[in-house]
Amino acid sequence: MAKFSEIIADDVPVLVDFYATWCGPCQTMMPVLEQLKKDLGEKVKIIKVDVDKNQPLAAQFNVRGVPAFMIFKNGKQVWRGSGVQPITELKHQIQKA
After folding, report:
1. Which CDD domains does UniProt cross-reference here (predicted)?
2. Number of domains forming the structure of the chain
3. Options 1, 7, 12, 23, the catalytic residue
4. Fewer CB within 10 A of the end CB, N or C, for the chain?
């Protein structure tokens, strides 16, 4: 994925969703992420990374299962979670970042 390092270097928290099109729990998280973006607006950037199309990036961040979530701020990973996450946890981690 081109420019990934530039995207995560932002001073606004960046939530990265590592997902796969065939993953049921990933599909479950889609409306949660949409609601999160509506709720937080410009306070967060959300990007989705298809692990099947971006295997080197998934390997770089040691993604072994999907969905996997990471929050970056100023280029540094500040949180990591895997599996279905409640919106309250994602909001808490983003606001803490």
Report:
1. TRX_family
2. 1
3. 23
4. N
Q: pTM of the entire structure?
A: 0.95
Q: Is 23 a catalytic residue?
A: yes
Q: Is 29 helix (H, G, I), strand (E, B) or coil?
A: helix
Domain housing 81 = 4-96
Instruction: Report the 10 Å Cβ neighbour count for 30.
Output: 13
Read off the amino acid at residue 50.
Answer: D
6-43 confidence digits (pLDDT tens): 999 999 999 999 999 999 999 999 999 999 999 999 99
Catalytic, out of 16, 26, 29, 51: 26
What CATH number is attached to the domain comprising 78? 3.40.30.10
The reply to whether 62 belongs to the active site is no
Ramachandran angles phi, psi of 63, nearest 5°: -80, 115
